Each structure stands twice: as structure tokens, then as C-alpha cells.
Amino acid sequence: MLNIGLLGCGRIGQVHARSVGQLDGVRVTAVADAMPDAANALASKIGADVREASALITSADVDAVVIGTPTDTHYDLIHQAAAAGKAIFCEKPVDMSADRIRDCQTAVTEAGVAFLTAFNRRFDPNFANLQQRLRAGEIGDVEIVSILSRDPSPPPISYIKTSGGLFRDMMIHDFDMARFLLAEEPVQVFAVGSALVDPAIGEAGDVDTAAVTLTTASGKICQISNSRRATYGYDQRVEVHGSKGMLRAANMLENTVEVAGTTGFQTAPAQHFFLERYEAAYRNEMARFVEAVQTGNTPSPSIDDGLRAQMLADAAAKSLETGAPVAL
Amino acid sequence: MLNIGLLGCGRIGQVHARSVGQLDGVRVTAVADAMPDAANALASKIGADVREASALITSADVDAVVIGTPTDTHYDLIHQAAAAGKAIFCEKPVDMSADRIRDCQTAVTEAGVAFLTAFNRRFDPNFANLQQRLRAGEIGDVEIVSILSRDPSPPPISYIKTSGGLFRDMMIHDFDMARFLLAEEPVQVFAVGSALVDPAIGEAGDVDTAAVTLTTASGKICQISNSRRATYGYDQRVEVHGSKGMLRAANMLENTVEVAGTTGFQTAPAQHFFLERYEAAYRNEMARFVEAVQTGNTPSPSIDDGLRAQMLADAAAKSLETGAPVAL
Amino acid sequence: MLNIGLLGCGRIGQVHARSVGQLDGVRVTAVADAMPDAANALASKIGADVREASALITSADVDAVVIGTPTDTHYDLIHQAAAAGKAIFCEKPVDMSADRIRDCQTAVTEAGVAFLTAFNRRFDPNFANLQQRLRAGEIGDVEIVSILSRDPSPPPISYIKTSGGLFRDMMIHDFDMARFLLAEEPVQVFAVGSALVDPAIGEAGDVDTAAVTLTTASGKICQISNSRRATYGYDQRVEVHGSKGMLRAANMLENTVEVAGTTGFQTAPAQHFFLERYEAAYRNEMARFVEAVQTGNTPSPSIDDGLRAQMLADAAAKSLETGAPVAL
Amino acid sequence: MLNIGLLGCGRIGQVHARSVGQLDGVRVTAVADAMPDAANALASKIGADVREASALITSADVDAVVIGTPTDTHYDLIHQAAAAGKAIFCEKPVDMSADRIRDCQTAVTEAGVAFLTAFNRRFDPNFANLQQRLRAGEIGDVEIVSILSRDPSPPPISYIKTSGGLFRDMMIHDFDMARFLLAEEPVQVFAVGSALVDPAIGEAGDVDTAAVTLTTASGKICQISNSRRATYGYDQRVEVHGSKGMLRAANMLENTVEVAGTTGFQTAPAQHFFLERYEAAYRNEMARFVEAVQTGNTPSPSIDDGLRAQMLADAAAKSLETGAPVAL
User: Which segments constitute the Gfo/Idh/MocA-like oxidoreductase N-terminal domain (chains A, B, C, D) (predicted)?
Assistant: First the structure.
């Protein structure tokens, strides 16, 4: 039995608690949250203890921690958990600063603890299937990767102001997906962006509509587009062109029903947002973390993957600011 | 150069004239129609002579006749053309009476002239592709055939009264398609039907909504459904299940555009009716007739195919009337 | 908290136990199975007691029973549970004999206990969505219903011999779906069938490929087809034509990935079988049962629904035997 | 009757001759080609005279010229035709040099003759339908346009060497499509590209795989990708995201047949190349030219559209060369 200590009892912490509940051989023994009510509510629902974060991390009945607290707390929690020799499952982004992620990486490496950066989309059954087939050579060598992500609606302006901006908060998933699919590091980033959805986002110094072009040393190309708005559900698509063909993963719709009438044939919207769309991905990512810890294998994506996605986000932000491509 | 005499200058005659115009090595030299205006209009458009039907049939500059006149005139025209030794392309149905079709068959056989029964759907690129792959064994042995045909809207009641009824006028295409796909003669027909679209159709003694089940000696099953109404365009689909898989042909839509919004994803309606949907089929059927006549091969579908489809329609009408399955 | 006693710990009993585990306000307190090992295994996994069936039914800590035992035991268990005043969730078919179902119906009605016949497909998110929209009038009045069910592969011959045959064991789901969608009782059943998948099924007196036509008093038509074989996954589709358009529910595929190459565009097979395809349906049907019991509402589908589906299956079997349509 | 003089009897000239043949009120009276055999073959097929180009242009029985000769001859022919007061239908690109296109523009404007730049894709029924709905506001304000074009296989290296490169020869269609859909001029172009399909293309100084990002003054974004290879047919797609939703045009497949088997569901490849895919577009573009000339309306796309697409291609080539975005 693997004993999990859950740090952060908000929405994402609850998702991870539910994933643990559906797996054999693992349980949440203790939870922590700066908000006592949140900690108590989750603890009573799943039969876990409530502890203060630092105490939880050093508890003997905690083998691994799941970090789902605000991003600015990750740094300290990772250092504490590494020092305590606990395996670490950490929400993305690891930190807003690449340098601070490097510090965490050092701490984790020196402590020799397992670490998984929770890029959930790698575990989506559709994207995972696509990537496995890509790696197996089904469409030959990768030439162009196209990634599109559109949220159903923008977050509150208050969130925008502290999120680090669209590239670090939203497109970071796509940067990780790009690396996952390209299997070669990007060497150049070019970004454009605008505030077309809500002028207030522009006034807050961010963009809500953006496109990025990545290139690799061997000439592979990746096009990414993001928007904070999609009226037809959470739009999450990937398309990869290779020397022998194309692989793409379409959206998951709310249901398979189609209606036909005078205006044509209509299917349901895409599943609304990440909790629905990535339900299986969240379950799979926890399963793979648990499996890695139990078998002694190295979890993936690693803290290095977390660092490299952050570096791409930083480069995109710089490209947008300077108007020029940024070399990595 | 193959010289065609066109009998009937109405809508379907004009379709065939256009098909001839798009083919090399063939031309329409003369046309005939009981309505002089119709004959003159088409003749001047395509540069052909206008003649009286009997004279046209025996003309030296007519190698083959295309019969697109009202059904009750086919019998005489076929006999005249056979007597004159002309190749015959005849619209379906050959005749309303199976016995009279047998008479025609005798005349055609004795004269040794080429004869094609114009079941246009066999030449639709989709259905033709499906049937070729079926014959090539792509899904193994046929087990269940499902055919669905729905017209966009019912014809005038005046047409209903003289058409021979839904089974002989509309479903006859599906009976031919069933034989084309089953590759084994049906031995039993069971039909049900109702007047759900327009009560006046029921008062005229016909049905506008019907379903038929065919079975063959080896146990293959075919389900057909027809309706005189489809709000979303001309619905024309075929699905075949075999021992190794399934082949189906979907509708052709007006275009490939899809719009996404709050209610989901919407594509265009199906192409409106037979002139659009079967444009390529009409062209291909004429090309195949011309090719057969020019090479001396036997055209297909034959007059026997025309007879057998009519026998199935008769059996379906009898089944509907008696409420019992009819053996063939 | 609603306390459930689970009768039958085989595959379907385990499915229901899992559904209960995912719902709030309900738990399994006791389980029973003729096989002690099966009962013990499930009990230890979910923290329930093991009891003998009759004792379980009369237990004070059991408010409702879930009957997932072999069909021939349903009759006695239903009578016992009704006598004990317990709410009853019963797997389909309620019984192989319509007369015995009527006996059960009397017992249940006289005891005034809640009863749900577990036709799981009514709770599939796709079919449920389609039926709600149909009832809401989205496509006007129903005219033709088409239902297709194909299992990935046939069950063992030993099962075939005791299952009551394809109409009572497999197509019974489609008969219930037909009633669910037609919203009008069929008055006539016509069936055809063959043993095309495996001759041994024919030797066992059953068919593995079948088609049924239902008609209602107002002239609505339903076409059903079944096969024990589908190489591309569990094929489960419904299509309804109404006066204003068409509603259909497509298969759920294993994933949304599509690959393109020289032979075209390929998507994944359909989800393999009922445990995957109807995972959400099983969860929803238990949720609706629990909700009905807790609120005092009448669960649906009722025991009468179970009876009427069985009557349609009996009629289909008789039609196949006699070769004639059977009136209801 | 509008009399056309056809300049150039190669593949594209034959396409335009066929389009003219399918239209009422227009005919080809004379053809010219540097290759006498090509001119004679086409002339005899369509019943036209063969003339030398300059003589053809000044012929009294020529109202309009269709220019389908090699690009480097366009400049002189346009000047001659403008001087002769003939309406001009000119294949793209108008010229390889933007300055020379400006010269042509001056000549055409001063002569006051009608001029259509033959960007055939604007007349594709799918893209035309999409653009009309976009203009009608169906998805609100345009935010992101995504255009993908992939040829089935690369042209000969000899062609690559004289074509002006991928941006001027292939992506020029997409630049025009971008302008057609954005309805606002791009102000910046950023291009990346590689030779991944064939190293010989790289050695010839060109790329075969490329991606371009366009931005407009109001912040609209357009992503274009091109490749000289697509194993699954000619890939031609457009997707537009607006404030209220998304419009996209999918590929046209060879047929609507789908086969299902153990590996899933497979449809046909996309139509092979431009002659099949844009058959309707070629017919429509000629019809619109003829209609404009006959009614005295200004044809579209104009010579200015030809110029602006060329300027975008030049900017893309410069961006690729310099590695930096290029302002317009």
C-alpha cells in the first residue's frame, strides 16, 4: 500500500484524491490546505487525517506527496519533500521561474526521489495513443506538428494578473505536448498575440489569442494556437504530419447523437472543459505515478520536462515582447 | 462515332443528352417527343434533328436508342427498336407488368440487340466502389444488407395515382440495389407500409413510408426502408455486413463546410435530389452503355435485371396487401 | 443512507457493486452468491457481509436488493423480496416466461415495492439524450425507428442452449429500445433469421443473424437487426426518422485518433463490448434506481416494461418458427 | 455570345476550354500556343481556329483572352490585350515580380479592361460557402485563420528551379486565401521552412515544408502550413475561428465509402490533386468571369489581389532568408 499525503485540497487536489480512490494499492492518508475548511471537507469525505503541510511531509505514514497548492508554494514544498525523501507528484507549472525550477531539480536529483511533473495531457487516452503510434513509426519521420487549444471562456482578470500570462499558464501545456510529439528540442520560438476576446486582458498586460511557431535543429516545425474562447466547448486537438502520413486526435464530444434537419447535420459540442475532457487523463497520470514509485522506475514527465516547457513559455513571452524570434 | 436517337426530351432525356455531350465518340443525331416544343428545344440546344419516334428508330443514322419516354410507351418502343436492330438504353421501369417485360425480353433476345436497364444507382461512384470491394471479398461473405432511401418530398398526388405505387416507382431502385449487393436472388419478400407523410397518399391507395425484408435461400437478409420525406436532403445510404466486416456508403453533402457554435458542430444537408446526387452516376451509366455497344459486350444491368426488380416490387405490393410474406 | 443487498457476485453483480461505490448516500451492506468464493471475494473488496440469499433479503440492514443471479432464480428472489417489502433492482430478463413475469408483477404490485428492470441501454448517455430530444419533439412525430446491435463475437454454444435464444437473450434489449423510442406499443412482429456466423448455433436450434420488423397501430415502423459478430467492436446504433428530421446515435470509438495514409483515413474500432460501452449507463441506471427509492418515485423501466419486451421476444421467436407475422 | 481567345493550350488551358464548353453564351473562337501540336489538338477538339498569339489578341472575333501561358509571358500578353481593349482572365501568378505586376496593373487600369486573377480556390464551392458565411457574420469577428495545403508529391526539381520557390509557386494560393478570409491586409509575415521531403529541393535553394504566420493591424492571426507531400491525397483545408464560433472546410474524399474491420473504420483518401479537387472551382471561376464581362461588373479577384498575394510571397521568402519577421 502506497500512502499519499495530499497538499492542496482545492479543485485539482480533489481530482487527484478521486483518482487515488479509484486505484488499488494506494490511499490518501493525510491532507493539508491553508484553508482549514477545505482540508476538513476533503479529509472527512475520503477518510484521511488533516495535518499542517510541513508535518504532513515528514509523516512516517506518507510515502509520496501530491502537490496541488498555489504555484508560488511549490518551491518550498518540493525542497521539504525532497529532504524528507518522499516521492513527489507536482502540478504544473513547477514554478514560474526557470532558475527556481533548476534549484528544485537539484534538490530532487540530490535526494534521489521520484518526481512527476503533472502534464496531464500526456495521459489523455487520445494523445497517448497518438504519441505511441508516432514513436512506433506509423507515419514515418515527424515533419509538422499542429497543436490547437482553446478554453471555453477566459478566467477572471484577477487570475490573469497573477498567472504569468497565457504562455506560462495556458500554452505551457502545448509546449509540453510539442516536445512530447516532436521528440526533439525546439531551438527557436516565435510568438504573436493579441487581446481579441476581452480588452481588459490586454490592459492587464496579457494576450488572449496567440500563435507560436517552434522549429528544431533538424527542421521540424510546430505550429501552436491558443484562445481563451471557444463557444463550442473545450477545443483540444493535435495533428502530426510525417513522411508516411498523418495522425490526429479529434475532440471528445458530449455524446454521439446527431440530428438532421433543414439546416444539415448537427452533433453535440465538445466536452465542456478540462475536468470532463481529461477525466481519464487524471486517473491515468496518478496510476502511472503510483506504478513508477512502486516499481522504482523513473516517472515521466520529469522535472526536466517541467523546466523545458517553462523555458519555452519564457521564450514565447520574450518573442511577443520583442517581436523577434528567440533562440534557445 | 456512335449515333444515338433520343426518345423523350423531358427532364431525364435532357440528363442523358448532357451525358452524351460529355463523352467522346458518341453524339445524339435525332430526338423525338410527343411534345413538339420539348423536342425542338433540346434539338436546337444540342444540334440534333427532330423526328417522329418510329421514324427515328428506323433511321440509318441512329445506332442506338435511349428511351426516356413515359413508362407505358416503353413496350412498343422496345419492340420497334429490337425489330430495327438498334441497341437499347431504357429507363426504369421497363414496364409496369412483369409479363410485358418478359415479352420485351423475348423480343430483345431474339433480335440479339444490346439492352441496358437504366438503374442509375449502380453507377454512382460510391455504390459502385462499395459493390466492387464487396465482390472482391473485402468483408467476406455477405450476411445483412441495409438500404435506406428517402426522397426530400413527395411527388404530386397525380403522379402517385399512376406511378404503380411506392414499391414500383421508388423502392424498385432499392430492389435492384439489393440484388446488386446480395449477389443471390431473394426468395421471400415481406413488406409493411403506412401513409404518414400525407394522408392523401393513403387515400390514393398508396403508402409513403415503408419497410421491406428480403431473404435469400442461403439465409442472407436485406432490410430496406423508404420514405417520401427527408428534411435534410435526399437520403441515399447502403450498409453491408459481411463475415469480416462492414462496408457502407454515406450521403454526399452539399459541401464540406462545418460550423461550430454553442449548439455543437453542423455540416451541410445532403445533396438535394437525384439530379445532383446522381450526376456522376448518369454520366457513368451512359459511358458504360456506349462502351458496351462499341465493344460488343453485353451491357449491365440487363433486361432480366429490370424484370427481377419488377417482380420484387410486385411481391412487395402483394405482401403489403395480404399482410403475409410472399415467396418468389 | 440506502443499504443494498447484492444477490449474485458474478460479472454483472460486480458492475453494480462498482456503481454503488461511486454514488453518495448508498452502500452495499451484504452480498450473496451460490459460489462462496465469488461472494467472499466481492465482499472483502467492498467491505460487505456475506449472507445466504434468503437471509440477506430479510435483513434489517438491507433496504433494497439488486438481483444479478441466473435468470431462473429471479422468480423466487423477487417474490421473497416483495414479501419482505424491499425495493428491487432486477437484471433483465425478469424471467424467461411471460406468465411468470406476470406472477412477479402481481407480487410486486401487491407488496407496493419499487421495481426497476435493468435495461441498461436506456441509461446510456447517447440513447438517453436521443430519447429526451425525441420526446421533446425535436424531429416531430416518429415514423421509422432503426436499431442495430451486433456483438463482437458469439457466446459459447453452452450459453446459446440455455439463453432462450437470440430474441430473448440479445434482441430483448432492442425490443425495449424500440418501445422506448416508439412510445407506442407494437401490434405486429415479423422475424427472419439464419445461422451464418456459426453452424453450431443453428444446430443448437438458434440463429445468430436476425432481422425483425415491428409495426404499431398508427403505422409507425421499427426495423431491428442483430448479429453475433462484428469484427470492428460492439456495434450499437439507433436511428429515428420523424416528420421534421432524423436523430441518430453513433458508436463510441476506442479513442478519437485518426491516421491518414495511402489507403485513406482510419479511426479506431468501436469500444469492444458492453462493459466498456455501457460503463456510464450502468452507473446512471443505479443512480436513478437509488434516487427513485430515496424519493419514493416509481423507477423506470418498470416490471411491465420487462414483461412487454419479453412478449415481443416470444412473438419474434414464434414468427421465426412459423414464417408469418405475429399479432400482439 | 462572348468570344474567347485562349492563350496557352497546355493542361490549364485545356481545363479552361472545358469550362467554357459547359457554359451558355460563351465560346472559344481561337487558340494560340508556342507548341503548334498543342494548339492544333485543342483547336480541333473544340472547333476553334489556331492563331499566333499577337494576332489572336487583336482579332475582331475575340472579346476576351484567357492567359494560361508560362508566367514569364504574362507581362507582354497582358499589355497587348489591355492595349487591344480585351477583357483578361489571367492565370496566377500574374508575374514573378511585384513591380512588373504594378506595370500590368497600370496598363489594365488605363485601358479600363476587365481583369480577373485566376485564384481558383476562391471559387471552390466549399471555400466560397465558408467565406460567404464568414462575411455574413455567422461566427462573428475573425480572430484566427488556419490554412493547410499539402500537395500529394513534389514537382520535378527542374520545375522547382524556375518556379520562384514554394512561397511564390504554392503558398501564393494560401496567401490569397488568407486575404480572402481575413478581410484585412496582413502587416507582418514570419516564415520558417525546411527541405524534409527531398534533400534535392534544399540543394536547389528551396524548401518543401514551410509554415508562415501573418498578423494584421487589428491583431488577427493567420497560420499557414505547406508541404510538397501528402500520402493520403491533396490536403486542402481551411479553419477560421471567430468571436462566435468556428467555420472549417474539410477535404473532399474520393468517395463516401467506409469499411470497418478489426483495425477500425476507414474512409477513402482525399481527391488526388487539383484537377479533381478544383473541378467545380475552375468551372465557377470561368462562369463568374464571363458573367462579369457580360454585365460590365468588375471581376474578382482583381489584379490588385494578384499583386498583394505576390507581395506576401516575396515577404515570406525574405523572412525565411533573414530569419526575422518582415513588415509590409
Answer: 2-116
